[in-house]
Amino acid sequence: MEFTTKIAIVVADDLLSWQKLNVVAFLTSGVIGQTDGIMGDPYVDGSGEIYNPLCIQPIVILTAKREKLNTFLARAGRRGVKPAVYIEDMFSTGHDAANRETVARYQSADLPLVGLALRADRKEVDKIFKGAKLHS
After folding, report:
1. What is the pLDDT of residues 20-51, one digit of tens each?
2. Phi and psi (nearest 5°) for 132?
3. How far, in Å, CA of 34 to CA of 106, rounded?
4. Phi and psi at residue 115, in whole multiples of 5°?
5. Closest Cα partner for 59 from 17, 132, 119, 136?
C-alpha cells in the first residue's frame, strides 16, 4: 500500500539507547493519538488468540544533532505542521501533567528538544526533516 503521508520521528543522536526508545514510544503516541483511522484491525494468531491492533502506516526513525531539532521545529511551524515534541526535562518527570509543565517553561525557539514526530504529506515531511539521517 502506498501512503500519501509519512510518519517520521527524529531523535537526538547523543541520547542513550533507553532514552531513544522512550522518546520514540512517547512521540509515536503523539502522532497516533491525533490521527483518525490510523489503527488497523486486531491481530489473531493460528490459535485464535487476539492481539491489539497496530498502526497501519510505517514509521521512519531518524537521528540528528540536537541543534538541528529546533530547525526542524521551526520548519514544521512555517509549513503549518503540528509536531509532537519531547524535551530533555521530560526524562526527569514522572507523569503527563509534569511533562506539560516543563514544556510550558520555554519559548518555542528555546525548547531543549531531544525528539520530534509528525505526520504530513510525504514531501513536506522530507523538507521539514532535511538533514536528519536514517537511524541505524
Report:
1. 999 999 999 999 999 999 999 999 999 999 99
2. -85, 155
3. 23
4. -170, 150
5. 119
Whole-angstrom Cα distance, residue 12 to residue 116?
Answer: 9
Domains of the chain: 5-134 (3.40.1490.10)
Length of the chain: 136
Tell me how far CA of residue 118 lies from CA of 10, 49, 110, 129, in angstroms. Answer: 9, 33, 19, 10
Question: What DSSP string runs through 42-64?
Answer: PEE-TT--EE---BSS-EEEEEE
Tell me, what DSSP letter sits at residue 35? -
61-93 per-position pLDDT tens digit: 999 999 999 999 999 999 999 999 999 999 999
Main-chain dihedrals φ then ψ at residue 107, nearest 5 degrees? -75, 155
Taking the whole predicted model, whether its pTM rises above 0.90 is answered as yes
Element (H, E) at 12: strand 5-12
The CB density around residue 27, as the number of other CB atoms within 10 Å, is 26
